[in-house]
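Section 5.1 Outputs to date
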Amino acid sequence: MPDPASYDDLMAYLSGFHAIEEQIRSGIPCGPLLMAKPGPRARELADLALTYKIRVDRVGTADLDRLSPDHRGLVLETTDNDSAEFTTLEDFLETLGNRSDALVIILDEITDPHNYGAILRSCDQFGVDLVLSRRRRTAKNAPIIAQTSAGASAWVKNAEEANLVRAVQILKENNFWVYGADMNGQSVYEINLLGRIALVIGGEAGLSRLLRERCDSIAAIPCQGRLDSLNVSVAAGILLYEVSRQRALGKLKKKVK
């Protein structure tokens, strides 16, 4: 039986069933899977782990309590780096080739792991090709991110850059239109979101000044409520849906012609 006290401090422990399942299916190295008094769903995931050649260890409930208090009889050992394939912006652009409809989302200091995970979930659902974030100024908590994203963190491709302003310039040089998200911008429903698009989403303090200045336009979500803004993960989901809607409509118009 493994000794939890001996684990490296860099280890992270996933306890959500969806997060564990997607982490296993992604093929990213992880494990072992630790089990204590498993129920039917936990046993299914144990069988899945064995299929993917991930070791399954039986441990005591107290061991899992120390690793992840909200566990349900099952914990998957990972590290804070065990997420979807990491790449570089340059490599990503090289793999695009002549594709004209790429979608990038740039996260400007999203430090809350719950918001970060929720955004990744929307990115997975709406076909985002790359999530670009600032190195060392992004949420870091693999278990919370994985659980909040319902496992999407195992699938969405990521890149980190030290200088997002420079990254935006590189995207523009590669025919991307860059739109920042802010409540004081132009209605997103009036903006053409076809083609190569990059959306810049700011954290709690909004877009940084230098990034805002590099955007081609600022997109706003028309709202009618009494509050002055939307939660950042909700706003990201709405913007990504609008991109998806416009692209679906564009394909339909081409078929009609």
